[in-house]
Amino acid sequence: MVETLYVLILIPVLLYLFFSVLEIWLVYRIALRNHSRSLLFIQGSTELTHTLLVFAYAQFMVTFSSLLIDIGGELYWPIALLMATLLLRGSTYLLLFYRERPPRWMYLVLLGTYLVGVASLVWALLIVVPAIITKSFVPDTTNIDLVLTVGLPALAFVMIPIIAVYKSAFAALRRK
Fold it and tell me: What pLDDT, on the 0 to 100 scale, is given for residue 134?
């Protein structure tokens, strides 16, 4: 049961990192290669991948809340940086979406938010994972049945649109 909780936290985070790398590649292709492709597909994929991150964060808060007493101070800066990049990314999306011909620097800002966001999440993982291991922390498994019956199917379900969006995005970029 405890291993299942670790999987339900780490898999969405790893998927978020993987899909963020794909989004970085897509934004890079648009920003630096003069693709005129709409950002609509990236906005959709970002919304879905952020859902993975929220799922993992909520699961972490429920199962590891007592661990936060020990490492909360260390997590402040990486989490604050991640939140700032998500806010800046959302604002940049709005600017890009509503401009007919957005300047290239806006795409570079968007690309920067992805890179800094991924780096801050990795920074947070480098704090959390060793703390779990060295403190031999046992997560709270009180709600494991609910997590397994609702969480796993929801996680599997969200993968369907994510895969469809990325297949479409890469196909559109190959046509250019």
Answer: 85
